Amino acid sequence: MAVNGPKEGKPRRVTILGSTGSIGGSTIDLLQREGDRCQVVALTAQTNVALLADQARRLRAECAVIGDGSLLPELRQRLAGSGIEAAGGAAAITEAASRPADWVMAAIVGAAGLEPTLAAVRQGRIVALANKESLVCAGALVMREAALHGATILPVDSEHNAIFQVFDFDAPDSIDRVILTASGGPFRTLSLGEMREVTPAQAIAHPVWSMGAKISVDSATLMNKGLELIEASFLFPVPEERIEILIHPQSVIHSMVSYVDGSVLAQLGTPDMRTPIAVTLAWPGRMATPAARLDLAAIARLTFEVPDSARFPALNLARQALQSGGAAPTILNAANEVAVDAFLKGRIGFLDITRIVEQTLARVEHVALTDLDAVHDADQAARRYARYLVEPTEDGRVVRVPTRGQGRH
Ligand code: NAD
Ligand code: MG
Predict the structure, then answer these.
(1) ω into residue 284 within 30 of 0, thus cis?
(2) Residue 350 in this model has a pLDDT that exceeds 80
């Protein structure tokens, strides 16, 4: 096992932003197997104070930060006598992200992860990036800061991690296409009429992957693949029109790179995020993980389909946002976060999610993104408009989005 450390013999200093989530938990699992080869600098979470305190004690972290500042007294109480520093609030998360560390896992969900991720990037070390929304809403800025500070961004998202493993960065001209695979989510075979009725519980029950609620809903609308298209365009030197999306329900091939000579290189594995996380943790080496081994004979069949953009309009919305450039991806992301939250709270229907994104993209100005303030302004403008769309009207029920005509369903 070769986790690359900063100096021979010294433990590697690591931080996890979003340690209580699905990716955070998988990262903790791997770190626990590393024992004293890693020293945990900081763990952060938003509300799950009990789990955060438990993780901080188990991993003997130097500090634990809870984003919801009102929970800081409870965190302090739970850490009493441990010698672990406790802090609370969004600014404290960003401060923790900027503490010297050799490897930072950026696994906060949503645009809320942008500033802590940027703080980690500015340290100029390794950032394992799961928080795709930070690249979607400010990709050019994040990549510019990474180059400026000499940081290495290693993608955790399974598709991008797969591409990273088979992409010849020394010969980008030899690459013909990048093929992002998608499981198709739980509603792959449903009609539009059936999709209109689905509940949040059905949407978060992903057929293959076990993930946080927001990304599970994104997988059901295929907005996740739209966000990943944008993410890929910032991570890899390939133009948008050369990034294809292919439905592959078994999720065995995590993505592919097609070369000009006709070769197609793919990365395969079982659906366990500990594998891509381990790739970033051991990079440029490899480390063992307990992920189940791939048994292709047992799986027997791998199938593929072209995505249906009529039932899953999120794909085209994301592609259009990427083509528009500027703040369009930021607006798409912010509107989607508001709409997914409203859907999870039972305030809007499943098909309303992409309608809200479409309307917000049409109404909020696609300004140029010159700096972080411009990103923040575009994000806030989109959230305001999307929130207006999901506000209950006088009859207390209808979403303020024109329903598509019967003919389009
Ligand atoms: P999750 O909901 O399980 O966990 C999110 C984490 O972020 C939690 O620790 C939570 O406390 C923290 N958090 C939430 N809101 C916050 C806020 N406002 N400020 C600070 N911290 C906050 O999510 P997840 O499934 O682990 O996903 C995390 C990120 O990784 C997302 O961007 C997701 O798209 C990406 N990702 C996840 C998977 C997966 O398998 N779960 C796969 C690929 C990419
Ligand atoms: Mg993914």
Answers:
(1) yes
(2) yes
The structural domains of the chain, with segments of one domain joined by +, span: 12-155, 160-299, 325-390
Q: Tokens in use for 366?
A: 């696609």
DSSP tag of 288 = -
Tens-place pLDDT, residues 304-332: 999 999 999 999 999 999 999 999 999 99
Is the pLDDT score of 3 beyond 90?
Answer: no
Q: How far apart are CA 406 and CA 244, in angstroms?
A: 30
Per-position DSSP letters for 172-221, written without gaps between them: GGGEEEEEEEE---TTTT--HHHHHT--HHHHT--SS----HHHHHHHHH
**Atom nearest to 25 CA in ligand 1:** 26
Q: Which atom of ligand 1 is nearest to the CA of 157?
A: 43
Second CATH level (architecture) for the domain 12-155: 3-Layer(aba) Sandwich (3.40)
Which residues are bridge partners to 85 per DSSP?
A: 63
| Res. 208 pLDDT band, cuts 50 70 90 | confident
88 lines ligand 1 (CB under 6 A): no
Residues 6+ apart with CB under 8 A from 277: 23, 26, 27, 30, 105, 128, 156
The CA 213 to ligand 1 mean position distance, Å, reads: 9
Instruction: Report percent pLDDT > 90 for the chain.
Output: 91
Ligand 1 contacts CB of residue 18 (under 6 A): yes
Fold of 325-390: Rna Polymerase Sigma Factor; Chain: A (1.10.1740)
List the one residue out of 151, 183, 177 whose CA is nearest residue 163. Answer: 177
pLDDT computed for residue 392 by the predictor: 75
Q: What count of other Cβ atoms lies within 10 Å of the Cβ of residue 70?
A: 10
Mean pLDDT score of the chain: 94
Instruction: Check pocket membership of 23 for ligand 1, CB cut-off 6 A.
Output: yes
| pLDDT attached to residue 409 | 30
Could you tell me the pLDDT band of residue 400, with boundaries at 50, 70 and 90? low
Indicate if ligand 1 lies below 6 Å from the C-beta of 67. yes
Query: What is d(CA 397, CA 161) in angstroms, rounded to the nearest whole number?
Result: 42
The residue among 154, 148, 146 whose CA lies nearest residue 130 is 154
